[in-house]
Write a structure and sequence with these properties.
This protein has 188 residues and is α/β, with parallel strands linked by helices. Helices cover 46% and strands 14% of the residues.
Length: 188
C-alpha cells in the first residue's frame, strides 16, 4: 500500500496540486481519478514528510506521544484519569513496551487517550505553556488526519503512525514503525 500511496503523491506533485488540507487532497485525487477513500492516508503521508526534519530536531524531552486506548488489552487494568489512561505495565498489550522505549529515549509526556478531543485538550495546555514543541501519535487514519490539520495550523511539528488494524477495540500497530518515528533525531 505504501508504494501505491507514494506513486499517487508523486502524480499529485507532478501536476502541482494543492495538498495543504484534506479538502485540497480530496479535490486533487478527483482530478487524477483516484480513490477518494485514500484522502486521509495520503494527507498523513504528505504531512509526515513535510514535518519529519523539523520533528527530528526537537529534543525528546520536548516531544509528546499519544497512544490510543484501543491498543489496550481486554483485561487492561489501566486507570482512567482526566488526561487519559495510566498504564499499569502489565505486559498484556504493546503499550507498556512502547512507553518504556519512549521513556528510555527521553520522552516524559506520554498519554494513552480514549479519543482525539483529549489530544487537543492536552496540546492546547502544553503548547501554550511551551512544555512541548513536537508531537507523535498513533491512531486510525481519520483521527490522525484530523489531528494533523489542527497541528499544522498551530505550526507544531508532528509525526503520525497509523494503526494497521483500526476499530475501537483489538487494534494493531507496527511497533517497529512507532519506535522508528519516536527515535528520529538530528541532534546526535
Amino acid at each position: 500500500m505504501r508504494m501505491k500511496i507514494d506513486a499517487i503523491i508523486s502524480k499529485l506533485f507532478a501536476i502541482g496540486a494543492d495538498l495543504s488540507t484534506r479538502n485540497a487532497v480530496q479535490r486533487a485525487l478527483s482530478l487524477i481519478s483516484e480513490d477518494g477513500d485514500l484522502v486521509d492516508q495520503i494527507y498523513i503521508a504528505i504531512k509526515n514528510r513535510a514535518n519529519q526534519d523539523s520533528f527530528s530536531k526537537i529534543p525528546f524531552k520536548r516531544r509528546v506521544l499519544f497512544l490510543p486506548a484501543c491498543l489496550r488489552n481486554k483485561k487492561c487494568e489501566a486507570e482512567l484519569t482526566d488526561v487519559g489512561y495510566v498504564c499499569q505495565r502489565c505486559g498484556r498489550c504493546v503499550i507498556a513496551g512502547i512507553i518504556e522505549y519512549a521513556e528510555n529515549l527521553g520522552y516524559n509526556r506520554i498519554f494513552i487517550v480514549p479519543g482525539g478531543s483529549l489530544v487537543i485538550k492536552v496540546l492546547k495546555e502544553k503548547v501554550r505553556k511551551e512544555e512541548i514543541q513536537a508531537a507523535a501519535g498513533v491512531a486510525c487514519h481519520a483521527e490522525l488526519a484530523e489531528a494533523s490539520e489542527k497541528l499544522s495550523m498551530w505550526k507544531l511539528p508532528h509525526q503520525c503512525i497509523p494503526l494497521l488494524k483500526s476499530g475501537c477495540v483489538n487494534t494493531i500497530v507496527d511497533v517497529d514503525e512507532v519506535k522508528h518515528i519516536l527515535s528520529l533525531n538530528k541532534n546526535k
